[in-house]
Write a structure and sequence with these properties.
Layout (H helix, E strand, L loop, with lengths): L5 H12 L9 H11 L5 H10 L2 H6 L6 E2 L14 E7 L12 E7 L5 E6 L5 H16 L4 E4 L3 H4 L1 H10 L2 E4 L9 H18 L4 E3 L5 E3 H13 L10 H6 L21 H16 L8 E2 L8 E5 L16 E11 L3 E5 L10 E3 L3 E3 L28 E10 L6 E8 L6 E4 L6 H15 L1
Parallel strand pairs: 1-9, 2-5, 5-6
Antiparallel strand pairs: 2-3, 3-4, 7-8, 10-11, 10-14, 11-12, 12-13, 15-16, 16-17
């Protein structure tokens, strides 16, 4: 049956894709359903766009294909303690003479050598800086770069000033994207496992002499053990790469025949070259990623993989939530979104690997389709309402002026028809709209 009326076309598309009997199936299956009952000009193009702009399909379907984002290699250090990973182990039982409840973890990117320092979870930035200055800098020298996750300690002005004083930079990783800080994260897991083996049944344990100890005392013994263990990514011990020899441990004194194990300068260089080769292998993963093409103002969906507070059964929750508007771009791999509703209190910066573009439905092609509520945050106090882009244009009734359908940036207000004189920077916006329309045609 040949169709010409857009209402009948929309009804056909709805019945062949969105009805309960069809269950939001794929584009190919929807094409087969439509093919058996009707035809109209450019019907394949309409079916494809109808399926691609389906709100339920975009939110419920899992992401397939290559992930967005490109792998950016962190600056390669030339010597130990140039680049340092930093993180905190929290929720530890009180230990030590000052009832420490957290542990500061620093890991040298060059040699993988860790430093474990007891501290308090709520230490201010100044206290953390003093700890680093007194207990770390004297052994390692001043760092060239510190890589850590986003933490209030780093966002404070005082901490930023201390970084400037030390001549270092702060490279912040993105929430829910721990690859930047994976070395410290892995060290934390190993540290917790090592402590748990001794303190599994309480916050204290007794050594072989019967003295009661806690985790603060324990890490002083565990740190050299880790330094003298072969690291999987380098094939050498952290101590060997940092200093050229392994730290002596108690069991070394039991050896009858001590052998000089200090490597020569040549063999030491060979070991470092092999370690660097192991580090560079991870860059091969870049083949499974593609560079993003997002712009400020674009509507996107965000993965719900790491959200545990969304209502409803976990197995049946949507794979994506939104759409949300992009408020800012942070480098090639992270974006800041305007979150609302259940996600309003979440950290608003996400890696591009967890988002995907949202395709809006064309009102003229599919007028019967219910428009989803755009979850765009309200304007902040003092923020000016700005026009993001022009969506459509038409002549007024007297045909003397043109009207343009505009979308506002960072506003809950729906799209609105305005005449040209009421639009700020109308020339640029209209010119961009016509250029994009011509490119699509």
């Amino acid at each position: 049956m040949a169709l010409t009326d857009r209402t009948l076309i929309n009804t056909t598309l709805h019945e062949c894709h969105e009805s309960v009997s069809d269950g939001h199936l794929s584009e190919d299956r929807t094409l087969e359903r439509v093919k058996t009952c009707s035809w109209w000009p450019k019907w394949k193009k309409d079916v494809a766009e109808y399926c691609q702009t389906c709100d339920r399909c975009q939110k419920a379907n899992r992401a397939t294909g290559k992930k967005f984002g490109i792998i950016i290699q962190i600056q390669e250090p030339k010597s130990p303690w140039e680049i340092v990973y930093m993180d905190w182990v929290t929720a530890l039982p009180p230990g030590g003479d000052r009832s420490y409840n957290a542990c500061l973890v620093l890991v040298d990117r060059y040699s993988k050598t860790p430093m474990l320092i007891p501290c308090h979870k709520d230490d201010p930035a100044m206290e953390t800086a003093i700890i680093i200055w007194n207990k770390v800098i004297s052994h390692t020298g001043v760092f060239q770069n510190i890589i850590s996750d986003k933490d209030p300690k780093y966002t404070s002005a005082l901490w930023t000033n201390l970084h400037t004083l030390f001549g270092t930079k702060s490279s912040f990783s993105t929430a829910y994207h721990p690859q930047t800080d994976s070395l410290a994260e892995r060290m934390i897991q190993t540290l917790e496992d090592m402590i748990r083996r001794f303190c599994a049944y309480g916050i204290e344990f007794k050594d072989s002499d019967g003295f009661t100890q806690d985790w603060c005392t324990l890490i002083s013994a565990l740190e050299p053990e880790y330094k003298t263990s072969i690291h999987s990514s380098t094939g050498k011990t952290p101590a060997m790469l940092e200093k050229g020899w392994n730290t002596r441990l108690p069991y070394d004194t039991l050896k009858k025949d001590l052998v000089d194990i200090h490597p020569t300068a040549r063999s030491f260089k060979i070991m470092l070259d092999k370690a660097r080769h192991h580090e560079n292998r991870c860059m091969k993963d870049s083949k499974s990623h593609k560079p993003p093409d997002f712009k400020i103002g674009d509507l996107v969906l965000v993965s719900t993989l790491h959200f545990n507070n969304i209502k409803g059964p976990k197995k049946l929750k949507d794979s994506f939530s939104g759409p949300f508007m992009i408020k800012a771009l942070h480098g090639p791999n992270a974006v800041q979104l305007g979150l609302t509703g259940e996600l309003m209190n979440k950290h608003s910066t996400f890696p591009v690997s967890l988002i995907k573009p949202y395709s809006s439905s064309d009102k003229e092609l599919f007028p019967l389709r219910k428009k989803p509520q755009l979850e765009i945050p309200p304007l902040e106090e003092g923020e000016e309402k700005k026009i993001l882009k022009v969506l459509e244009e038409r002549r007024t009734r007297n045909k003397k002026e043109r009207e343009y359908l505009v979308r506002y940036k960072n506003s809950t207000q729906e799209d609105e028809w305005l005449i040209e004189k009421d639009i700020k920077n109308a020339y640029k916006l209209v010119r961009r709209f016509r250029h994009e329309r011509k490119r699509k045609e």
